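ok so dumb question maybe but i'm new to this and my supervisor (M.) told me to 'just get the structure for UBN2_2 domain-containing protein' and walked off. so i did the thing. is this what she meant?? sequence i used:
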Amino acid sequence: FRLYKDTFLTKVFTREDVNQPYWKVKNFTGLQQLFAEKIESKYREQYNRIVPYDTLTYGDIFSIITKTGLELCNDIKINKQIKRDAKTYKKELGDVCTQFGYEQLKPPFSTIKNNPQNYKSKYRKIYYKRRKQIETPQ
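this is what came out, is it supposed to look like this??
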């Protein structure tokens, strides 16, 4: 993000119309689409659905972008940690079960019903059986 920010500011501040709201909106379009939508929704929450680009400074814009980016990174890290913890909890639970003499908990079996290979082999067998019946004289 730092490279994007530096490049954008360098290009915009060389222009005479630097404080036009168009350039402040253009700043969001250069970001990734979902990230930009998240930032715009934060602005709309903060300013009651109408974002006053005229009064916003570039510092305000970049501070919200940085803050939102850090929140997003922290959310991703927390989700990864939760997944890791869930795996260790399952392992620990299995160890406790064996210590008390019970079998480990096993997940239910998943049946593959819509496997296209099963259908192919099934219909091939039927096709060849019928073909043999037709070819053999009775």
